[in-house]
Amino acid sequence: MGNLLYSAIAFLLSLLPALVLITGVILTARARREHGRAATIGMWGCVVLLLGLALRVAWSLLVPMLVADGGMDTFQVLMLLHGAVDALVTMTGLALLVWAVVVRRARPGAETPAPHTPAPVFTPGRQTPTWEAPAPPPAWETPASHQPRPPYGQEPR
User: Fold this and answer.
1) Distance of CA 105 to CAs 100, 108, 110, Å?
2) What is the mean pLDDT of the chain?
3) Which of 42, 87, 124, 127 has the most CB atoms within 10 Å of its CB?
4) Domains in the chain: how many in total?
5) Is 109 part of any domain?
6) pTM for this structure?
7) What is the pLDDT of residues 43-79, one digit of tens each?
């Protein structure tokens, strides 16, 4: 009964950090278009930290069996190995998150322009759609086509 309670508590205590890291993975994956490389690096940092959390949960579930089967000498060696791997994974995940914060982002407006799409080809006899037809100028801007306008200031009164 003690082992089951120990395992249940270890699992429950790891749920909150797991939810935070899963949320981090989702948010950074969605922000990749806006933040580019920084969001991708941050996403990988969350994934590495989530992997480290999974290793810690697996370790906490295996501890009672390791002590019972291998004795204290085996347990001490495995504890040292686990501590080294856990530290390496945690430092890698945190380094990726810090790198994501300080990585240089593209300036707004410095985006790569979209490739130019050619204008539709006009074919005689075809009615141009309204979206292609230019708007006619207002009547006050264009003189009547049958009467030339005198220069400004020389109009008859």
Assistant:
1) 10, 9, 10
2) 80
3) 42
4) 1
5) no
6) 0.60
7) 999 999 999 999 988 888 787 787 788 777 888 888 8
With beta carbons less than 8 A apart as the criterion, state whether 96 and 44 touch. Answer: yes
Gap between the Cα atoms of 20 and 41, Å rounded: 17
Q: d(Cα 52, Cα 83) in Å, to the nearest integer?
A: 11
**Distance (Å, whole) CA 19 – CA 50:** 9
Q: Is residue 108 part of a domain?
A: no
Q: Is residue 118 part of a domain?
A: no
Rounded Cα distance, 11 and 9, in Å: 5
Place of tokens 């948010």: 27
CB 99 within 8 A of CB 41: yes
Paired tokens of 29 = 């994956």
Q: What is the DSSP letter of 131?
A: T
The three-state secondary structure class of 26 is: helix
Structure token digits, residue 52: 């480290």
* Residue type at position 2: G
Tokens 């278009």 found at: 33
The answer to the question of residue 57 being in a domain is yes
